[in-house]
What does this fold into?
Amino acid sequence: MDRMSPLDASFLHIENENNHMHIASVAIFEGPAPDCAEVMAMVESKLTLVPRYRQKVRFVPLELGRPLWVDDPHFNLGYHVRATALPHPGGDQQLRNLVGRVMSQQLDRSKPLWEMWMVEGLEDGHWALLSKTHHAMVDGVSGTDLLSVVLDTEASPARQPVAEFEPEPEPNRLRLVADALRDRLANPYEQYRVVRSATRQVRDVARGLRSMAGLVRPTPSSTLNGPIGPHRTWAWARSSLADVKTVRGALGGTVNDVVLAAITRGFRDLLIGRGEGVDRVVRTLVPVSVRSEAERGTYNNKVSAMFAALPVGIEDPTERLDAIKEQMTGLKESKQAVAGEVLTSLTGFAPPQLLALGTRVFSRVQQRNVNTVTTNVPGPQYPLYAVGRRMLEAFPYVPLAGSVRIGVAIFSYNGLLNFGITGDLDTAPDIEVLARGIEEGMAELVKLASA
It folds into this structure.
């Protein structure tokens, strides 16, 4: 049994019938499509490397402790690995429609919180793997590590014999309560260690909190925010790391700066297309990994956040990039991410009942003060394979929550840089405008840089 961290547990507490807290990736492979049994055999051979795939969530009665991961005595790989096919002609739009439908369904909390869909019938003989995993299991960065573990780094790897799964006995309610009470009494040193660590960082935390103070002011009213439903729409945009390198070489900035500048152009186009003014900024939450090298290979959440303002009112692409560069440098110096990490670690002191309530309240307040989320996750820069077929490209999916109707995720793989855009189906059916704006925003920066 493993007890969840406060951050992992928060993703379960946020979730409801409209806020589905699963992340996903859509990987497209060269053909021909394999048999689904081959895909299942590949996944089964890797299960010992990812224990969470065979564990489910158990909640402690009366919320006396944070939820736990326990072995699922009825684990059935056939439930989690599924097969489907696209209707003719199997183009991009058919695949994106399928992803939207799959992402609109919550994961079953009585089973391990993941699904993998093998999708046949893509154009050019290609096929896809849609991997859907609850955010309580992984953050974006560890999710890419997970992708590298489940897939192969060579076309014909040696397969080890699969050991029979022997689950640990599932705890009863009495044991769940007893273990929770014991943990609360037996960990004073851990609480002391967290406080001591926070005290050492008090100066950085104070700077970060001062920087966050402006977030209490709600953003201007916009169609980007409002009530959302359970249904999702999804789109993508394509670019490359070579394009980003060209822009950085001529115009400066980091990879993240260039990416945010392209996304800003996309939101500018979207707002203009909706007839809204752009004499404003679009405030975005930017998740920041705080995972150390020593923590690589673990699949819990190790993430903090910064809050950036996308200058959609700036028409000139060079000025837009310069404004973002200056702002992001200031945000890094402000220590927002440090403050966020420390505050998250301190939530471990809160009784689980207050942690659950506080997570829901904070989520509502936070979502009123941001317009979108933009998360950039670096992926492997070498080819991956599934059943001997090379992965051609991959696109990410980011969940929506609260009143945020659109989210953008960025994923790099083997020289490619791809964007996945999630929208609420009923209130953001036009996210294709955002996707094309991102591509055009990157193209105009490359053109300027090349000149």
